[in-house]
Amino acid sequence: MKKKISILLVAMMSIFIIAGCNTGGGEVSVGIVLPTKDEPRWVQDEARFKAALEDSDYTTEILFSQGSSAKEKENVETLLNKGIDVLIIAPHDGAAAGSAVEAAKKDGVTVISYDRLITDTDAVDYYVTFDSIAVGAAQGQYLIDNAEGSGVPLYLYAGAASDNNAFLFFEGAWSVLQPKIADGTFVIANSSEAEALKDKATLTRDELGKILGQVTTNWDPNEAKNKAQTNLTAAGADLKGDVAILAPNDGTARSIADVFASDGAVTSYLVSGQDAELASIQYIIDGKQSMTVFKDVRTLVQDAMGMAVDILDGKTPETTGSYNNGSIDVPAKQTDVIVVNQDNVKAELIDSGYYEASEFTGLD
């Protein structure tokens, strides 16, 4: 009898151990890899991704690559080992992420490139994005609409050359700025490569790369600050006064704005941005930053998670266009962008519930 009880106990323990292996840590439905925790934008995305699946039977796990392609690949492998069916990834480096997503595709996982396009691989199923060319065009158009007179010094800055979006943002800005550079409204102040190409309306990828090589900030506010200081030190009086600044995002815009504000020979500046970061909204209210391109990540997250749930439910996700990544045309879902300045900051960001009025000072 004792022997039978012992066998029964061993059998029951085995069942519990097996059950524990199947549920301990749990299988994950959707794996999400974001580029860094050091930018407010991605921390906001993390919170919204978590909220998006709260009322769902599906589970998610979010990992950060901290600016390392090696860490990014390791994160993807970790999620694959947890049995994910869908991978959402915002790559640190669009080209370097190829090997990570190829491993996912090999495992039969559907890959969604999020916000930034993964390039030079056919292992990408979908792309969820803001219209990056429209973002750059909005930044450039704001400078055009608000600059006065002609011969306005134009300082150009860009994101990281490893990020395909940086090319798209700059391409969009160049498409509207170039005619105004060619007709003398703006004078390029800090890029000999851009100056050499000022009469060319459409730039090749290599030509864009040459300009980015001179004006990249690598999305790093400190690098942006140092570059702005170097540019202003080298600039003569004719390249100061009232100036226009194409800054690629809010983090770099604030750093660049601080440098230009501290130069006594700069009488006024227009400076673009994007992401509607809380600190930059305060800068806009205070008149230190001119505008930001508001990309409502609530919508982008909803689009990405909606696509993931469609895939998990066996449905074909809705797309609105496609982007060539150098290897294939990737079906894409595009989200609209909004220009925010002092005039509409309350309507777009407070009244919409994106931020609370109490988070700012000086807001009318």
TrEMBL record:
Signal peptide per UniProt: 1-19
Keywords for the protein's UniProt record, in alphabetical order: Signal
Source taxon at top rank: Bacteria
Pfam entry (one): Peripla_BP_4
Gene Ontology MF terms: carbohydrate binding
Record's subcellular location: Cell envelope
Residue stretches spanning the membrane: none
InterPro entries in alphabetical order: Bact_Solute-Bind_Prot2 (IPR050555), Peripla_BP_I (IPR028082), SBP_2_dom (IPR025997)
Domain Periplasmic binding protein span(s) in chain numbering: 30-315
Keyword Signal: yes
Entry's Gene Ontology cellular component terms: outer membrane-bounded periplasmic space
Presence of the UniProt keyword Signal in the record: yes
Family annotation (SUPFAM superfamilies): Periplasmic binding protein-like I
Protein name per the record: Sugar ABC transporter substrate-binding protein
